């Protein structure tokens, strides 16, 4: 991993040639110019997971400490605990979780453990909400859940197609932003989780969240968790759809989504996996909307632990197990039917941070300096785009933009380190193909439910079969006249849609280790007028 | 041929819940010639079931009336010489809308259709088309051929697409297919 290039802060500053550095309490507040310079230098690529559940979720079991230890042992650098919003959780679970998170931070200091919430977005799906640690983080989360969680506020109508609920979601995002602006929180993010699973996140809602505050509502899961959900029952899995994406349209679903959008493609959500689909439609209007990949870990495939005491009492205020379960119990025997992985075991979101601290990780996610991979398909990815006339030899990287003169060439260089060690399944994945995807950026359509980007396509595919060591791939976009964006994806090449190079709609059952993809976030190219 | 129509509106927010409500209220779905669920726009979407019946039995009507009043469901019955509305007015409005749509036969999700009972176990696409009202079987992600096998799980819920009753199916790793709609989808974040 590039994160092994673990530079000290002093080295970072020296390399970037920064004269004036303002150091905040977490040591990451650099001037804009300095951080721009630093981005061109060495970044710390930190792997993380922003979607995990503990004994404080109505449908989960593990302790915060277990997740933190498991994550750390799998090379995870940052982790967000996101238990489900719910009445009992709002009443009693936040403070308990906070105590456990503080203890985990103390016990495992080199793992950045955030406390978050899996928000029932009013009128829609779930989303991760989290804040940078502060003296008031639990208080802020508590206020947010009480006032903006769909289930807490609207009960059984939580996902209703109702403008009042949709407005409440935007208000929640704006409230988070206001807490950052007034200095109460040092950073807050919202990302939509498993967005296409039930068709609840309509295109106009996604645009509405991003517009409510583009520094807080910044993206979605490109790939959902529960990646072992498709494993055959004979092998101990649930044998349901990959990602537990086995839903069909319901009254609250957006009627414009096609039936195939309810399934995963190569493990990825349809919004992300479909080239020229919804994600591309958002990028094609210049939105900075990023993707991640997480475990959504509730119950780990072939794990030996079962839920502790309290089943049936989670919602009972008179129970000692109100809003929680007792610590899980190790049976010593692998339990069948679990569909998840530990954080870091299968899905990784790797962010380019300027420092190993909480605010820097939030900043990197917000900036879109992220790529995601399944099954350890690649170890590192460095995508650079530069316009030679710009005089910037280093180029810009993921989430950034570069401005060129009309007619300039744009050079893309992609350096990838393929897997060098076996993944958590004991396999050595082999990268076989890398695709460069590009699409024009233009004015947004007045139709807020647009979900296609017809100009976006795979513009180049590289066959990298059999290549060992670091792979460097170059591509030149000649005589560029219009603004556009570039993103890349790659695969082990094991599974495709019939007659194409696109990912396949995942069949049931499926071994998730047999069909691996990575995706990068985009780089934008602007044309000076 | 005169047909009798029955439509029932409940507070259900999912199709599964609506079908459960129909079962509990003893709505005669199994006796229907054709039955569909519809999403009708009220203040937010509302769910209604419509049933085309050979005839409406007076006893069944009385029983349904009692059950609907007890649960605050709405029902509309419409036949040549009969129009009865039961329960909250708003729900009756949605139920009437559903009957209009059902008469047009271009929209809805079928829960009872001709040939349904025969399509148990594993069936070829050709057999499904021949034995039932389903006009088309469409493979999501992978095209089907007439010899493709669908493991029906004894649960088929075809939907109207462009006026045709279409059964969507998804691929199994065995090369066979299963219906897109599952009788028991994953229960996310529920107490257990």
Top keywords for this entry?
heterodimer; A: 529 residues; alpha+beta; TIM Barrel; Immunoglobulin-like; 2 domains; three-stranded antiparallel sheet; globular; disordered N terminus; B: 192 residues; six-stranded antiparallel sheet; four-stranded mixed sheet; 4 helices
Summarize, please.
The complex is a heterodimer of chains A (529) and B (192). Chain A is α+β, with helices and mostly antiparallel strands.
Compute the number of helices of chain B: 4
Shape of chain A: globular
Broad structural category of chain A: alpha+beta
Q: What structural class do you assign from the helix and strand content of chain B?
A: alpha+beta
CATH class of the largest domain in chain A: Alpha Beta
Structural description of this entry:
- The complex is a heterodimer of chains A (about 525) and B (about 190).
- Chain A is an alpha+beta fold and about 525 residues long.
- In chain A, β3 (about 110-120) and β4 (about 125-130) form a beta hairpin.
- In chain A, about 20% of the residues lie in helices and about 25% in strands.
- Chain A contains eleven helices and 20 strands.
- The longest helix of chain A is centred in the first third of the chain and has 21 residues, at about 85-105.
- Mean pLDDT of chain A is about 90; it is low at about 1-40.
- Chain B has about 190 residues and is of the alpha+beta class.
- Chain B is built from four helices and twelve strands, in the order βαββαββαββαβββββ.
- In chain B, the strands form three sheets. Chain B has a six-stranded antiparallel sheet, with helices on both faces.
- The radius of gyration of chain B is 17 Å and the shape is globular.
- The termini of chain B are far apart.
- Classes of the chains: A alpha+beta (about 525), B alpha+beta (about 190).
- Chains A and B meet through loops of A and β3 and β11 of B.
């Amino acid at each position: 991993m590039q994160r092994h290039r673990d530079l000290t802060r002093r080295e970072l500053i020296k390399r970037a040639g920064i004269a004036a550095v303002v150091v905040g309490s977490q040591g990451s507040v650099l001037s804009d110019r300095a951080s721009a310079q630093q981005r061109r230098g060495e970044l710390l690529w930190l792997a993380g997971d922003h979607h995990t559940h503990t004994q404080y979720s109505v449908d989960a079991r593990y302790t915060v400490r277990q997740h933190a230890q498991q994550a750390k042992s799998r090379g995870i650098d940052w982790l967000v605990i996101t238990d489900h919003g719910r009445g009992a959780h709002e009443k009693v679970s936040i403070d308990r979780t906070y105590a456990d998170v503080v203890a985990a931070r103390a016990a495992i200091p080199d793992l950045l453990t955030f406390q978050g919430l899996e928000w029932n977005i009013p009128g829609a799906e779930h989303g991760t909400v989290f804040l940078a640690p502060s003296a008031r983080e639990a208080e802020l989360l508590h206020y947010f859940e009480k006032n903006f969680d769909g289930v807490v506020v609207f009960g059984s109508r939580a996902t209703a197609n109702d403008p009042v609920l949709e407005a409440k979601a935007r208000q929640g995002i704006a409230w988070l932003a206001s807490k950052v602006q007034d200095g109460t929180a040092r950073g807050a993010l919202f990302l939509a989780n498993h967005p296409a699973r039930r068709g609840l996140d309509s295109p106009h809602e996604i645009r509405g969240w991003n517009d409510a505050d583009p520094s807080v509502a910044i993206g979605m899961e490109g790939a959902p968790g529960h990646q072992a959900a498709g494993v055959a029952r004979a092998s101990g899995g649930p044998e349901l759809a990959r990602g537990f994406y086995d839903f069909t349209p319901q009254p609250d679903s957006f009627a414009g989504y096609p039936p195939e959008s309810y399934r995963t493609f190569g493990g990825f959500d349809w919004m992300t996996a479909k080239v020229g689909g919804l994600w591309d439609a958002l990028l094609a209007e210049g939105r900075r909307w990023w993707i991640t990949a997480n475990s959504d870990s509730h119950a780990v495939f072939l794990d030996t632990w079962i839920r502790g005491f309290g089943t049936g009492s989670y919602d009972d205020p008179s129970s000692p197990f109100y809003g929680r379960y007792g610590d899980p119990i190790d049976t010593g025997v692998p339990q069948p039917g679990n569909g998840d992985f530990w954080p870091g075991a299968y899905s990784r979101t790797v962010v380019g941070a300027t420092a190993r601290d909480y605010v820097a990780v939030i900043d990197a996610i917000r900036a879109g300096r992220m790529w995601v991979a399944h099954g350890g398909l690649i170890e590192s990815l460095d995508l650079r785009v530069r316009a030679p006339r710009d005089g910037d030899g280093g180029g810009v990287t993921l989430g950034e933009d570069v401005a060129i003169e009309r007619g300039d060439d744009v050079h893309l260089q992609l350096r990838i380190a393929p897997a060098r060690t076996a993944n958590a399944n004991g396999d050595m994945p082999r990268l076989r193909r890398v695709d460069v995807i590009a699409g024009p950026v233009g004015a947004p359509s007045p139709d807020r439910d647009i979900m296609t980007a017809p100009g976006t396509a795979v513009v180049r595919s590289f066959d990298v079969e059999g290549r060992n060591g670091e792979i460097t791939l170059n591509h030149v976009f000649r005589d560029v006249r219009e603004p556009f964006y570039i993103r890349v994806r790659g695969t082990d090449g094991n599974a495709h849609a019939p007659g194409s190079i696109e990912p396949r709609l995942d069949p049931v059952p499926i071994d998730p280790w047999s069909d691996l993809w990575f995706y990068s976030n985009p780089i934008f190219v602007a044309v000076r007028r | 041929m005169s047909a009798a129509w029955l439509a029932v509106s409940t507070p259900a927010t999912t199709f599964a819940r609506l079908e459960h409500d129909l079962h509990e209220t003893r709505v005669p779905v199994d006796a229907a010639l054709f039955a569909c669920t519809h999403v009708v726009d009220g203040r937010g979407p509302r769910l209604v079931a419509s049933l085309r019946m050979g005839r409406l039995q007076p006893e069944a009507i009385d029983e349904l009336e009692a059950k609907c009043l007890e649960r605050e469901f709405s029902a509309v019955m419409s036949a040549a010489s009969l129009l009865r509305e039961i329960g909250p007015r708003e729900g009756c409005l949605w139920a009437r809308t559903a009957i209009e749509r059902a008469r047009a036969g271009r929209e809805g999700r079928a829960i009872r259709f001709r040939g349904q009972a025969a399509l148990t176990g594993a069936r070829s696409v050709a057999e499904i088309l021949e034995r039932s009202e389903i006009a088309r079987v469409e493979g999501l992600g992978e095209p089907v051929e007439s010899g493709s096998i669908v493991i029906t799980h004894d649960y088929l819920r075809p939907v109207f697409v462009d006026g045709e009753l279409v059964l969507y199916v998804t691929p199994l790793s065995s090369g066979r297919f299963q219906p897109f709609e599952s009788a028991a989808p994953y229960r996310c974040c529920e107490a257990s």
